[in-house]
Design brief:
The protein is α+β, with helices and mostly antiparallel strands. It contains 10 helices and 19 strands. Helix 7 packs across helix 8 and helix 9 packs antiparallel against helix 10. The mean pLDDT is 96.
């Protein structure tokens, strides 16, 4: 991992225009990606020949122990210390995280530094960071895989728990607790657990007064995290025998996912991936009831690039991790979503999700 993080700085600077001498990184998730350390504060200043982590007293001991790919400096005077490092490395042009930095923070930065350095105000740094982060190393993929295994242990457990009379909130809490018991850092995002007609809301909020009844679908969208890396899965199960329409919709969503998985490989675009699943749903007459994109990237954040959407021109490359999550949502009736996530490989994809996808009927 140390060697991998060392390479991240050189890869980042390689992605930046030659005119950029230095890069300033302050967002929590990007700082963690480049240093390997989680913290709520800190500044990374990267040059062509060196990198520094400026961090305050609260984290200095931890940083000195675990950050090995850049020089750790205890923070006392942020702008004064940045000025000295810019002078030391003869930096004339500084790139900032345009897609993460607030206007206030950028104005403050300019106030202190504009007399000594020119700012690259483009999206160059943010896009370069995205380019680095969207291609996962095998070490990152293993962490994502371990997060997914934790989520699947929770799925196995929840199948023994769901029955008529339990609430959506009960299901949500049980999933979260089981993931924590099996080593999750925390849930990937607020766990979704819905039942009955509420399953038609793609991102509905679990309620304590909505109870499972016989004949209901139960939709669960959730994930675990392992060393900061996220998993993401959705499964829809039925409590009691499903109606003919419920079975039809479920089978349609499952076929849509199957077709999308077949085209998930290096060289395909996000648009092609989305189309493969969407066409199945449209052909079945439910096109108006699939209103979100087929998928998105996953990594240190639950939503990353590349996207698999009708308008996505992103070309998939080996190492991308993307979700495949078609759904059909019938307001006032029910909804179905089935979500796996995969690693893009040269000739296809590796499905990281091993949980069963056939319609599970709980008696």
């Amino acid at each position: 991992m140390e060697r991998e993080t060392e390479q991240r700085f050189s890869a980042l600077m390689h992605h930046l225009p030659a005119s950029v001498d230095a890069a300033l990184i302050q967002s929590d998730v990007n700082r963690r990606y480049f240093t390997g350390m989680q913290s709520s504060a800190g500044t990374v200043l990267c040059f062509r020949d060196a990198a520094y982590l400026l961090i305050d007293f609260r984290y200095i001991e931890k940083a000195q122990q675990c950050v090995k790919n850049c020089t750790v400096v205890e923070l006392h005077d942020l702008y004064g210390q940045i000025q000295k490092l810019l002078e030391q490395h003869h930096a004339k042009r500084l790139a900032v995280e345009s897609m993460a930095m607030t206007l206030h923070a950028f104005s403050d930065l300019m106030h202190h530094l504009e007399r000594m350095v020119e700012f690259d105000k483009s999206d160059a740094l943010s896009r370069a960071i995205s380019d680095c982060r969207t291609v996962k190393s095998e070490d990152e993929i293993e962490k994502i895989r371990r997060a997914q295994r934790i989520a699947e242990l929770a799925f196995e457990d929840i199948l023994t728990f769901i029955q008529p009379g339990v609430s959506e909130r009960d299901i949500m809490l049980r999933l979260n607790q089981t993931m924590m018991e099996h080593g999750s850092d925390g849930e990937s995002f607020p766990t979704i657990a819905l039942t009955g007609a509420a399953t038609s809301m793609p991102h509905g909020v679990p309620m304590a007064d909505r109870l499972v009844h016989k004949g209901d679908f139960v939709l669960m969208d959730y994930g675990a995290t392992y060393d900061g890396y996220h998993s993401d899965m959705t499964r829809t199960v039925c409590v009691g025998k499903p109606s003919e329409k419920m079975q039809q919709v479920y089978d349609t969503v499952l076929e849509a996912q199957k077709q999308a998985l077949l085209v998930a490989k290096s060289g395909a675009t996000g648009r092609v991936l989305d189309k493969a699943g969407r066409e199945v749903i449209e052909a079945a007459g439910f096109g108006d009831h699939f209103g979100h994109s087929l998928g998105h990237g996953v990594g240190l954040e639950i939503h990353e690039l590349p996207n698999a959407s009708p308008g996505s021109k992103a070309v998939l490359v080996p190492g991308n991790v993307v979700t495949i999550e078609p759904g059909i949502y019938l307001p006032g009736e029910f909804g179905v979503r089935i979500e796996d996530f995969v690693v893009i490989r040269e000739g296809g994809c590796e499905n990281l999700t091993l949980a069963p996808k056939h319609l599970i009927v709980l008696d």
